[in-house]
Design a protein that fits this description.
alpha+beta; 6-stranded antiparallel β-sheet; small GTPase binding; repeat; DENN domain-containing protein 5B isoform X1; Run_dom_sf
Length: 1322
């Protein structure tokens, strides 16, 4: 829960701070609620008229009895307190959120109870408890005013029956308001009569509220006190003492219970008991959690709890204010040790509906009206919204929603706790009612009964995680069945327990024994609620104690003192997130990776760091003590790291602690007594709450026996203040950084209720705009630091080491931010995604413009050209609409929110996000039509900064679209480019290609012969190439291309420069250099080659508008290197022996580094084995060094020729028996080498001699045989004929050192791509 419960330093330890009476001010008369005027102002602003000139007329279409009128604070005692200033507007608005309501004798006038909360800017909280009842109106002016309004309404409704054209408002906020203002009950002739007022025959009643404002949430005690106060007013006889005595007593003579103690004080008729947890226990939570679980069902509540932990927008919806408060407080009390850090308004007054437009996380409660449907409720944004319909036990969750770790087991444990108290874990059980008419209970009516039946049917439906369960009936059946009883006894004897039946029996027994021992039913109810509350909370608390048992090890404490830490807070990393996640069980990661990015977790870590210099925050102190205790028993057992569920072990003792406190009263407050006041004033009149004497209630006694506690607290506060000053830290600096820099929206945790002028609303929206911009800056910075910081360390080698999980979380967070920005200030809500809706509007408008100017191309859409190496590729159009079409064609994505997120990921991967959004927003007329004046997207300067922050993301490479949508079909374009001078593109053979990537391969695709294309370069020289388009499932990052042909026809020889492959959706282009012949009797006789890919980066000149790029990743084989080690003109390049030795060491080193990275962060092993600077390339140079004349009789000799001759020698020597004398292991090695070479030679693939050598090296590395094969080849006499004396292969010291280097690869499991080993069964 946000804010601590401790009373501020100078506040006396009083149970209650204020007693307030709200109702109608007979002097000012009837005033319409400010809500109508506010909506007229907003509507005028939306339509572009002068809002201040808008007439403030009254709504005569609605019956006056259904309208809301302005309430006033009629009295408050005391007038004001220095430590807790009275906020009159806020209290009035929250005591009567709908304003005054009127009734006649024909209407229901049941008293209602609700609570509210006021959060101050420093996060501290004040609680309000309100008892609302109806009092007869005695003022003739009010009665005549109501009579006049009724007559005007009747006249208006008769004239309204004639049809007239009325303009319908399109504002989503207005439709929200109208849906909330619909009639309370179905329209019928009887209800119309009941809704009218005639002063001659009707008695008029008006609502009045009694309110206690307290520093701590003693809900049960306050409810009972206010209920007794109302009973004293309505009773036939006057109360024992004047009401002033009871008010004075609770304000000045009832202290707060000390921590770990219980307190008894006296109401008007009965004593009231309350208790406060000790310092080492979970903090006070008096709202009945069982009711929250019953209303929603356990599974639904756990889901809402998860949404709260992930700081989504949560909207609670119910007709009952107290239900809203119970669920909101219930959820936030389960968060221990974390605290909700954002907007928290469990009861949203009607005049604050514009706050639903807030583009920040919030937890708000909205009152529904009977008869209104969820479908009529239009909310400004729903992309990240968790909608909780409390009355119908129904929730709507956001998309991409990770489950809470061990969710099933958690639900099971919570259900068992509820069941042990006789509460159904599956259905929304009806609220328990005490004997007699309790405040807030509603008499049953036929309509209400129908609704209850409907709810029961909904509960039994099972679609909302609510299974039908009539526990008591089940138990009766079991107990009445002799066979089942015997069966149960048998299972017990064999050691099997029937837990559910035992739990049922215990729960029912607990209910039957209630009320015994001289305690009232209300006392028993309170004890039961307190025990159940603490057990449910302990179950959740133990989950966090298990999950974060080691959190301290990952806290980064880098600042020398508090001042320097606060000053550099934003630049500092306080928690080692990557290491923490790597230490967690795999199933926890989806939830934890999101959770550790939240504000509540950041604040928790901040509090931990600050505890070096200050007293520990209370929740943190309790949590750390629990972890220390767990460690004492556990000694950091490995179980803490496993994903097995650990049940809470302290349920029984926590309930016993609470029970002992409530059964044994530690302190009894002074009894109410007669005060020194004038006799005759405030005399008793049945049914009317009197005007109390302010002079005796505005000041308290000075000789209380507990007043010395105040002085002690004051002295403690003084000492603490001196210590703080001694630290030399300015309070304003601390406030500035702790309240502003730490989080967004923290100064908006509670909307300011005091002043609702248009200027204040505008100021609030301006804060939202600033907050969104700051959040965008922080998010993009975090994304860049995570990517670039590690890329810089890698110096461009290998992939960035940010984990896929972390990256995905950050991108999901960016998607959420963009949705919130596009939802801010929206005029008309269409669909759940505001961004996608805007894009659809843009698309429609662009199509309309294209139709109007069919000939003229869209000038602002640039074409993306390619650099010269990919000149053969047709240019790919850079277009927002084109990318939209790609997303729309993906059948896997079903919702608008999903489409918007996919489009963001695609644009980010293409480095076009900023450019696309700029293009989207350049249509200012459309933006003005869709958004209100205060919207973020209409603040020009902030919008420009926002786009600039997004532009900075172009400096890093993301594969966030390719890596997430792995099953979609993607079109790929393949272009085969011949070498220009030595060959033409014509070939009579039938070429084929197979493209492989990290996610799979395309399979062999025959390329038709009629796809020859011609392009012209900048000098207008023609170039021909083969181009083909094919569609297959997403291949991911492309790694290899197999290229070949069937050698048919006269022109079967083919000299290929390279193959280009482009993903037509993301635009990623890969170049696969070849530089070799394909054909029999030419080069190495290969009809098939495996080519290794490298990503093609667009040239800087052409892409200057899209920002710069990261250093290239691992490079693939370039043409220069390939030519240098083959039979072509590159033979002039000969590396020195030192360079060759260095190349082998570097190649092996790269492979070792690859395996030392976490599995999800590794690049392509194929590139390290077969690409440039790869193992194959280095060993090829090693075997070529000192090779004798390359041409014997005009025939090219390859390294494979030497290998074949060596194998022929070994096999002949083996047959002659020369090898039989060698050591057995050497003989086995010789056999393995012969076996592998023969297998490669006998394969049906025509991969050529260099391809065969590459395959031998790869297989040798995989099967850990390379270091054993090299000595065999070195010892073979063939080497003397084929190598110079100076060759590295004949230098024993060099060979020995290389064998040692190659042996280091034995520790790693090398796996080869299918494209390399295809057709080889070894």
């Amino acid at each position: 829960m946000s804010g601590s419960f401790s009373v501020s330093g100078s506040a006396p330890c009083r149970f209650a701070h204020y007693f307030v009476v709200c109702g109608i001010d007979t002097e000012t008369g009837l005033e319409p609620d400010e809500l109508a005027a506010l909506y007229q102002w907003l509507e005028a602003d939306r339509q572009g008229r002068d809002p201040d000139a808008a007439a403030t007329g009254e709504n005569f279409e609605q019956s006056p009895l259904k309208r809301t009128f302005k309430s006033k604070v009629l009295a408050r005692y005391p007038e004001n307190l220095e430590w807790n200033p009275f906020d009159q507007d806020a209290v009035n608005m929250l005591c009567m959120p709908k304003g005054l309501s009127f009734r006649t004798q024909a209407d229901q006038r049941t008293p209602q109870f609700h609570s509210f909360i006021i959060t101050r800017e420093d996060g501290s909280r004040t609680y309000g408890f309100v008892h609302t009842f109806y009092e007869e109106v005695t003022s003739p002016q009010i009665c005549s005013a109501m009579q006049t309004l009724t007559q005007m309404h009747n006249a208006e409704s008769t004239s309204a029956n004639t049809p007239s054209s009325s303009s319908s408002s399109s504002s989503s906020m207005d439709s929200l308001a109208s849906s909330l203002d619909e009639a309370d009950s179905p329209t019928s002739s009887s209800s119309r009569r009941a809704g009218s007022y005639d002063s001659s025959r009707d008695t008029l009643y008006v609502s009045k509220a009694l309110c206690l404002i307290t520093p701590m949430p003693f809900m049960h005690a306050c409810r009972r006190f206010l209920s007794q106060m109302h009973r004293a007013v309505t009773a036939a006889t006057a109360p024992p003492l004047p009401l002033e005595s009871y008010v004075h007593n609770i304000l000045y003579e009832v202290p707060l219970p000390a921590p770990g103690r219980s307190l008894k004080f006296h109401g008007v008729y009965e004593p009231i008991v309350c208790q406060r947890p000790g310092l080492g226990e979970l903090q006070l939570a008096d709202f009945p959690l069982a009711e929250a679980f019953s209303l929603l069902g356990v599974e639904n509540l756990v889901q809402v709890f998860t949404c709260t932990l992930l700081e989504m927008q949560i909207l609670l919806y119910s007709h009952d204010y107290q239900r809203l408060m119970t669920v909101a407080e219930g959820i936030t009390t389960l968060l221990f040790p974390f605290q909700w850090q954002h907007v928290y308004v469990p009861i949203l007054p009607a005049s604050l509906l514009h706050f639903l437009d807030a583009p920040v996380p919030y937890l708000m409660g909205l009152q529904s009206k009977e008869g209104t449907d969820r479908s009529t409720l239009e909310l400004p944004q729903e992309a990240n919204l968790c909608f909780v319909d409390i009355d119908n036990h129904y929730i709507e969750l956001p998309e991409d929603f990770p489950n809470f770790p061990n969710k099933t087991e958690l639900i099971q444990e919570l259900s068992e706790v509820l069941l042990s108290y006789g509460i159904s874990a599956n259905t929304g059980a009806p609220p328990r009612t005490r004997p007699g008419s309790a405040p807030g209970s509603t008499p049953s009516t036929p309509g209400r009964e129908r609704k209850t039946v409907a709810l029961r049917q909904l509960e039994d439906d099972g679609r909302n995680g609510n299974l039908a369960g009539e526990e008591l009936a089940v138990l009766e059946l079991l107990q009445g069945n002799a066979t089942l009883e015997r069966l149960q006894a048998l299972t017990k004897r064999t050691g099997v327990t029937v837990a559910r039946v035992d739990a049922l029996r215990a729960g029912v027994k607990a209910q039957l024994t209630e009320g015994q021992g001289g305690r009232t039913a209300a006392d028993e109810e309170e004890l039961r609620n307190a025990k159940l509350n603490v057990q449910l909370r302990e179950v959740c608390a133990s989950r966090f104690t298990t999950m974060f048992a080691d959190y301290e090890a990952f806290v980064i404490q880098s600042a020398p003192d508090l001042e320097s830490w606060l000053t550099n807070r934003e630049q500092m990393h306080n928690f080692d997130k990557a290491s923490f996640l790597s230490d967690q069980p795999e199933p926890y990661l989806p939830f934890l990776s999101h959770f550790i990015e939240t504000q509540m977790f950041a604040t928790f870590i901040d509090n931990k760091i600050m505890s070096q210099w200050e007293d520990k925050e209370p929740l943190l102190r309790v949590f750390d003590a629990r972890i220390d205790k767990a460690r004492l028993f556990n000694v950091r057992a490995p179980s803490l790291r496993s994903s097995s569920y650990q049940r809470c072990t302290i349920l029984k003792e926590s309930a016993q602690t609470v029970e002992q406190r409530l059964m044994k009263i530690d302190h009894t407050a002074i009894h109410p007594h007669l005060l020194d006041m004038k006799i005759g004033q405030g005399k008793y009149e049945q049914g009317f709450f009197p005007k109390l004497q302010a002079d005796v209630l505005n000041t308290g006694p000075t000789n209380n026996k507990w007043s010395h506690r105040t002085a002690t607290a004051q002295r403690r506060k003084e000492r603490h203040r001196h210590q703080t000053e001694h630290l030399g830290l300015e309070n304003d600096l601390k406030e500035k950084f702790m309240q502003e820099a730490r989080s967004l929206g923290k100064n908006l945790r509670q909307p300011k209720l005091s002043d609702l002028s248009p200027a204040v609303i505008a100021q609030t929206n301006w804060k939202f705009v600033e907050g969104l911009l700051k959040e965008c800056r922080m998010k993009t910075k975090r994304m860049l630091v995570e990517k670039m910081g590690r890329e810089a360390v890698e110096l461009g080698h290998g992939e960035a080491t940010i984990t896929g999980l972390e990256e995905n979380t950050l991108i999901a967070s960016l998607c959420d931010l963009l949705e919130r920005i596009w939802s801010h200030g929206l005029q008309v809500k269409q669909g759940k995604s505001a961004l996608w809706s805007h894009m659809l509007h843009y698309h429609a408008r662009e199509e309309k413009l294209e139709q109007q100017q069919a000939e003229s191309p869209v000038s602002h859409v640039p074409e993306r050209r390619k650099s010269d190496c990919s000149m053969a590729m047709p240019s790919l159009r850079v277009s927002l609409i084109q990318d939209m079409r790609h997303i729309q064609s993906m059948s896997e994505i079903k919702t608008d929110v999903g489409r918007a997120r996919a489009w963001i990921r695609l644009s980010l991967e293409k480095k076009l996000l900023s450019q696309h959004l700029k293009q989207l927003l350049c249509r200012q007329a459309l933006t003005k039509k869709l958004y209100k004046r205060y919207a973020f997207l209409r603040c020009e300067e902030e919008k420009e900064q926002f786009l600039f922050h997004l532009l900075s993301l172009n400096t890093v490479d993301y594969f966030c679209f390719t890596s997430v949508f792995t099953t979609i079909m993607i079109p790929y374009r393949v272009v085969i480019i011949p070498i220009k001078k030595l060959s033409n593109a014509m070939t009579t053979s039938n070429p084929w290609v197979c493209v492989s990537g990290q996610l799979g391969d395309s399979g062999i695709m025959q390329i038709p012969k009629n796809v020859l294309e011609m392009t012209f370069d900048s000098a207008f020289r023609p170039h021909t190439h083969i181009s083909a388009l094919f569609k297959c499932q997403n291949l991911g990052k492309m790694t290899t291309v197999q290229l070949g042909h069937d050698n048919a026809g006269l022109l079967a020889k083919w000299l290929v420069d390279c193959v280009m492959v482009r993903n037509e959706i993301t635009g990623h282009t890969y170049k696969f250099p070849c530089g070799r012949w394909l054909g029999k009797g030419v080069d190495d006789g290969s009809l098939e080659r495996v080519l290794i890919g490298e990503p093609v980066l667009p040239s800087g000149e052409e892409d200057s508008g899209r920002g710069c790029y990261t250093p290239p990743l691992q490079r693939s084989p370039s043409q220069i290197r390939r030519i240098s080690v083959t039979s072509l003109s590159g033979r002039g390049y000969k590396p020195t022996s030192a360079q060759i030795q260095e190349a082998i060491g570097e190649a092996v080193n790269n492979i070792i580094k690859h395996f030392h990275k976490p599995e999800k962060e590794r690049g392509s092993l194929t590139v390290l084995l077969c690409g440039e600077s790869s193992l194959v390339s280095a060993l090829e140079q090693f075997f070529r060094h000192g090779f004798k004349s390359a041409r014997l009789f005009q025939k090219t000799v390859f390294v494979w020729d030497f290998v074949e001759k060596a194998i022929a020698y070994m096999e002949s020597a083996d047959q002659m028996g020369d090898l039989q004398e060698t050591a057995e292991p050497l003989g086995r090695t010789c056999q393995s080498l012969c076996h592998y070479v023969n297998a490669i030679n006998s394969t049906r693939r025509n991969i050529g001699k260099d391809g065969k050598f590459q395959l031998l090296v790869c297989l040798g590395a995989r099967d850990r045989l390379l270091p054993q094969w090299v000595p065999l080849l070195v010892e073979c006499p063939v080497i003397q004929r084929m190598y110079e004396d100076s060759a590295l292969l004949r230098d024993r010291a060099t060979v020995s050192s290389h064998i040692d280097v190659l042996e280091t690869l034995h520790d790693f499991p090398i796996t080869l791509e299918a494209s390399i080993v295809k057709g080889i069964a070894l």
